[in-house]
Amino acid sequence: MLSKLFNALENTRTSINQAFKKLKSENLLEEDIEGFEEQLLLADIGYDTVDGIITILKKLNKEDYIDKIREYLVNELPKKYTMENFESPIVIMMVGVNGTGKTTSSAKLAKIYKEQGKKVLLIAADTYRAAAIEQLEIWSNRAGVRLVYNNQTKEPSAVLFDGLNSARSDNYEVVIVDTAGRLHTYDNLMAELEKMYRIIDNRFPEFLVKNLITIDSLLGQNSVVQAKQFNKHIPIDGAILTKFDGTAKGGIIFPLYKQLGVSVKFIGTGEEISDIEFFDPQIYLDGLLGNEY
């Protein structure tokens, strides 16, 4: 059965394959190369990676270039992601701008860790959005994990502190924090995020902190700008690419990794709690290029 990721990349794959077919013609024209370059850029692959592909294309003959391009692209991508085994309990801070899927991704991760036998706690630290707690409560029930929240305060750090005290007392192994969505240009909200990070680091040193940014796959190159700004305030340890449906272009994984060193670890492929896949460069390239390449 084809994965949802493969199906989501159908439009991009079709466009790239059509460009590939033109490159196989006996009379390869400069305009054919330019058309191929344009298709790659439209897929959000990024100028640096596309330039490398075109360099390979111009150096090699038609019998060699497709395999070499795929080999090159594999080396431009993050490694296959497998869940780490942490010796200490971990706190996963979910960060990102409004509407990128932090809440649903938090619950999806919670379900993954629970299925691995971990004791998982969700913390609703998005105190600015009226429906955030109710939404996460629904999702936590779907994941089958406990949720900590406080309707009486608008202070995310206070909710975080209470949640981590509870996690410490009850020996939770994985704590996932749904933070408020914020524009990367809002300094006061970024300062609040820094404060939350310091609280974990200073008051709960037994917890290993991992910060994951949710990236809307439909936003294109603007996602790189967002990740870069967040990384200035807290260290970003990885990304979850969300909303990976039939309209996703899919190439943003390349510039995130090449320009910022941010590895995509998970890909959200739908609205159900099980609609999340571990990132695998080979499966991803199958979706982007097709199985024949």
Describe this structure in words.
The protein is an alpha/beta fold and 293 residues long. It has a domain of 200 residues: Rossmann fold (3-Layer(aba) Sandwich), CATH 3.40.50.300. Helices cover 48% and strands 15% of the residues. It has 12 helices and 8 strands. Strands 3-2-4-1-5-6-7-8 form an 8-stranded mixed sheet, sandwiched between helices. A hairpin with a 7-residue loop joins strand 7 and strand 8. It is elongated, with a radius of gyration of 21 Å.
Profile the largest sheet: 8 strands, mixed
The total strand number stands at 8
Helix content: 40-55%
Number of DSSP helices?
Answer: 12
Our measurement of the CA-to-CA distance between the termini, rounded to an integer number of angstroms, reads 19 Å
SS-based structural class?
Answer: alpha/beta
The best one-word shape is elongated
Strand order of the largest sheet: 3-2-4-1-5-6-7-8
Q: What is the alpha-carbon Rg in Å?
A: 21 Å
Low-confidence segments, given as residue ranges, are none
CATH-assigned fold name of one domain = Rossmann fold
What top-tier CATH class of one domain fits best? Alpha Beta
- Beta percentage is 5-15%
What is the string of SSEs from the N terminus onward? HHHHHEHEHEHEHEHEHEEH
